[in-house]
Protein 1
Amino acid sequence: MTTGNTWHPVSLSHAIEPGTSAGTRLSGEDLVVWRDKSGGAHVWEDRCPHRGMRLSFGFVRGDHIACLYHGWQYDSGGQCRYIPAHPDLEVPKTIKVPVYLIEERAGMIWTALAADAGPLTVAADETGTVPVHSIYVDCSADAAAAALENSKLVPFSAARDAETKIAAVAPSLYAVSAGHDRLLVGFQSLSEQRTALHVVISGLPEVYQGSGQAHFLNWVLGLRYRIENPPKKVVPSPARAVAEAL
Ligand code: FES
């Protein structure tokens, strides 16, 4: 799940409001995810080219982001446009923040670290999505996916005994469904031993907003508990193993 030319979710869309930024990681790379005042989302390296301050600590000003330390301002393409200590300077084109590919699908912000990544294969969700929660767990993305595959979904709006179906619908994205309900779970590998899971309901806000979100938030918290407390393997005592072998 962690190669540079694969798309990964790095945030729930609703978590980054216009005019805000947040720091995150993907496969060990520090990233800033920010949204300009007109709603466009951006994913960049989280490092100011001047002295290395995290840009996620900075301020969004219209369609620019300003570094907290000395106020250098970068436009939405990552190009430095203004240096407060030298207001009349034409800023050299070489002062630029590395920017990454960006898409918004399934209620999540997606990026790929490699510029030559193919198109994101997550389809636009025709019915809309309702955000649930992002959880952070101390295990690899593969271990979290294995725990998800063994989980059961209690439906919100259908028969309580509906069968749970889990399928990988794209790299880093699983669909979990039971009855009429369907969740999408995006996997973000922060590092080899830390993973974020971003969860949305695939469905209409008028059906799920409020009590539906609360219902599936409980499911998400239960999933985190199961990931962090995997069932212990019972190791038979040597005497019992011998007895069972006879
Ligand atoms: S470190 Fe960012 S402006 Fe100086």
Protein 2
Amino acid sequence: MQAWKEHYWTLRLERCKKALENNNFEVFIAGNTQEAGIIFSNEILPNLQIKTVSWGDSITLRATPILEQLRRQQNIEIIDTFAKGVERGILIERRRQALLVDLFLTGSNAITETGKLVNLDMVGNRVGGITFGPKHVVLLIGRNKLVKDVDSAMERIKSHAAPINAIRHEGWKTPCMKTAYCMDCSSPDRICNTWVINEKSYPKKRIKIILINEECGL
Ligand code: SF4
């Protein structure tokens, strides 16, 4: 990356970090997805003493080495709610169990300059896990998710993240998959069902955030 561009984003991410810390989130900044993995294994995981882990759908999380790092841990039970070849009813039951794990990982649809998280879920397991249940939460968030305020976050999600997220799921049938615009549909495949805004982390530092100075996810 050009140095001036990196500097621009470093300044913006550091400002966002301060706002998040004022809202009781614990925050780290990584230069890229590989560095996010190093921060997780060196600065976060050793302090958590976890026995169980699960995660919500996140392209950004999967772009890091974190899930592979966790799979190598002999003493940590993984609840894989996205395992291939497993029927959907079993995966949904696993997602219920995942709300009680020691550590839950995922991403965020948007993050505001004032230090708030904004997410829109289809099933609700992702926003559920972020909000209550798992003892610890780690979120991986690319710089492209940073927006001015909650209104901008909702606009970003409805005009960009949700339609493109629908399009990446083969076999679904939502109108935005044909138009690339939200039509506020009533499709059985509608992915926009539950909004959650996390204004602060409660308890303090329960939610840890790794801001990544790269474009990641949708
Ligand atoms: S409400 Fe329906 S049309 Fe709009 S983004 Fe969500 S799934 Fe697509």
